[in-house]
Amino acid sequence: AQTVTQSQPEMSVQEAETVTLSCTYDTSESDYYLFWYKQPPSRQMILVIRQEAYKQQNATENRFSVNFQKAAKSFSLKISDSQLGDAAMYFCAWETTDSWGKLQFGAGTQVVVTP
Amino acid sequence: GAVVSQHPSWVICKSGTSVKIECRSLDFQATTMFWYRQFPKQSLMLMATSNEGSKATYEQGVEKDKFLINHASLTLSTLTVTSAHPEDSSFYICSASQGQGWGQPQHFGDGTRLSIL
Question: Whole-angstrom Cα distance, residue A5 to residue B51?
Fold first, then answer.
């Protein structure tokens, strides 16, 4: 079975510091998309960043960047200069070519930002 | 930006009643929408794919007679929980993508909290 694993239930970070969330996945597919979504207390799912598997360059969106290691099947998210508004549940997800639009999510990591 | 609206945001009803949840794409057309279910402090689990003008496809283990999906237009999908029971209480979220093809970012509704008494 294809799976997405987030091994950190919760991560705490101080304001202005950096935190890295881990995500690993297991697949035999060669091409797919990977995503990080954020779910704040409002429970609205918000796209943070996405990465296509065949692109070697790591995606970056402002303070958010990923470390994509395809051979290791790892897709970690780095949040730099953490802000109070970054506090949320973060989900790693992926979509394969034969499951268009269907996202498989990891269990999530709760990010706590302390002043 | 693309907006997906979900209604109602919270519903409480008695066991045995049916509840309809609407998912609308407000500023784009969506031939396909997705319905997810989320239990407290858990991840989102895909329930079904809603296809405009055709039958929905359900994930393994999801009762199609319990969770009726209708996608009658390019901007509206509905999920009806029939004869709801307390175990159906959950957070239901829909999503749709603005673009065609895979890898497009999904836009999510705000979710519906369903509580069955």
Answer: 29
Query: In whole angstroms, what is the distance from residue A108 CA to residue B104 CA?
Result: 21
Task: Report the residue from B43, B103, B105 with minimal CB separation from A107.
Answer: B43
Length of chain B, in residues: 117
CB B22 within 8 A of CB B2: no
What's the pLDDT tens digit per position in B62-97? 999 999 999 989 999 999 999 999 999 999 999 998
Amino acid of residue A103: L
Put simply, the answer to whether A101 touches B97 (Cβ < 8 Å) is yes
DSSP state of A85: G
Residue type, B53: G
Confidence of residue B53 (pLDDT cuts 50, 70, 90): confident
